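Local shape tokens

___
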Amino acid sequence: MIRKLIAFVATLVAVGTLGVMPVREHNNSYQVITPVNQYVETVTSLANKYNLNKEYAIYVDFSKPANQHRLYLINIKTQKVEYSWYTSHGSGSNAADKARRFSNVPGSNKSSLGVMKTGKTYVGKHGLSRKLIGLEKGKNDNAEVRFIVLHSANYVTQEYVNTYGDPGMSHGCITLNPKDYKRIIMLLGENSLVYVNA
């Protein structure tokens, strides 16, 4: 009994040290996110550096495989990740399982890395969408020309991932779960940070 108690306490200490945080999914299960503190610190710093909104930001972590949550909605005021989900990478960025190649070139169908900010909303073939503006010259400043946006996609649902193993791929856009996309797009508003890392 004492041995089990010691092991349990050690686990709690390790979780606290690493900044591990559970985020609720729609099916009421939990997915552990690490390193949450790094994501929060990064978007807070970049929002200040680029003079962007200090309310909500998106962090996309393309270093992770596609069948894990890679999109994080961060509340800068509370310094917490409020939401995580699957997201697509561009079909030109490699196979469906992981993004390995990135580009700023129109027609490449690859994802772009770096600092972007949200622009205006519009209603297109994916419904309500939000434009993205690249802020790093030579890295993502063609985002508008390439029509890189935030939009809903039925190929990032839990059902799709359960069936095919990975989300589907986009033309470079950052995709959102159809159940949540309107809320996320409206929470972000204009001039909010979207940071894509790998």
Summary: The CA atoms of residues 32 and 167 lie 19 Å apart.
